[in-house]
Each structure stands twice: as C-alpha cells, then as structure tokens.
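check this:
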Amino acid sequence: MQNAAFRACKLPYLYVPFLVRPKELARAVHGIRSLNLVGVNVTVPHKERVIGHLDTLSTEAELCGAVNTIMNRDGELFGDNTDGRGFLASLQKHGFSPRGNDVILIGAGGSARAVLVSLIRAGCKKVTIVNRTSANAQALARTYAKVGKTRLEALSLEALREPALLKSAALVINSTSVGLHGEEFPALAYAATARTCIFYDLLYRPDLTSFLKPAKQAQRPVYDGRGMLLHQGALAFTLWTNTPAPLATMSRALAQALRQPA
C-alpha cells in the first residue's frame, strides 16, 4: 500500500518491514536517527513502550498512550497515532459522523483506547464500553472521563443481550479479536438497534466475521477494518511526505494484498 503510493507520487522512498525484539527497541529507535529514516510505523508489542524513546508526541498519541507513526524531523523524533483518525475517516467516507450520537464500544484494549479517544474528540454524546472483564472497561472509562464532554459508561459483556442498551446506538464497534479465526461472537441484541445503526468490526478477513454476519442478516450496514487500515496508512503517508495520499492507488494495492494468502 505505501510503496504503491510512493510510486504513484514519484517519491524516492521504500517501505520495508523490520523485526524488532522488545529488548532491542531502544537501539532500533536510535537507528531511525542514525540511518536518517524519514519515518516508521510501529505495531504491537511496541506501541506503548516506544514513547519513552521519542522526543515529542502529538496530543492524540499522549491521550492514547500509544504511537503507531514516527516522523524524523532532523533527528528529532515525533510520535503520533493515526489509528483513531483513520477509523473516523473511514466512517466519514460512508457519510457517518459520531457527533451527538450514542456508541457502543466492545473491548478495552489498545485499539479500543485509540478509537475511544477519537470518538470523544469528535463530539460523541455517549460511549458505552462493554468488555468481558468489566473492571478493565471501568478503568478505561475513568481514564477518559474528563477528557471531553462525552458521557462514558462501563458494562460487562452480558449487557449486549439487553435490547435497552442497543436501541439508542447509532454505531456498534468490535475492537476485540473475537471472530478473527471464526469463533462465535457473544450474544448481542442486533434486532433491537435502529435500522440505520452501523456495525463496525476493526478486524478484517475474506468473509464476514461472526460479529458482522448477524448484523448483515438483520439488514444493518456493516463495515470491517480495511477502511481504518487504509486511512490510518494514508494519514501516515502524509505525515512522512507532506504530500496528499493517493487514496485510490492505496486502496487498490491494499485490496490486492488482502486477496493474496498470507
């Protein structure tokens, strides 16, 4: 996706993977400066720990407590997090804005944190965090209770069975890994939602996940994580190059890559 974008914009860059073991993280970050790399992406398990090795952070990265994109500015390393903004951009493509809406967020891990920060900053009316371990959902709600005006509530996974919880939701998000390998998703009162309620799974696989399949059968709009993957990458591209991302090119390259066997 990134290399296709570089070629389309005739930029002299190359995007390559580096395997970095946790104990080598500090040396790897030092290598960004030493090799004068324009920037890098960071993925698990380094998104949180890398912060201590950077010079400055964006507001979003500070709030998330995680970095997925680093820019090298004359040896000064700036960390940002484009995951949440990529998520919002993918929703905007489908004509949806979280502002003033009620949202249900399933999960309380790193992905949930990035999405939650973006929902709060986008002016969401209420976010209900639902998690198998309710204590983790409560901790997440407490952490961001005073960040914006969004009302936060934390519930256990069993609450998804209750129609009363779902009836006001405009958006239901799965940020967990449940369904990635075909396992059954916990019971959820899909039919209690409005017909326009969007079901969004941060996961992506060739067929619908077990979270999205019942929503599709209930004739609700469904989206998977490909859009978020595309748009967070496009944001990173622009941060590195100061060039508008060629979205159509990146989208075609991503679609081709995801059709190929891993």
In short: The chain has two domains: 2-81, 84-226.
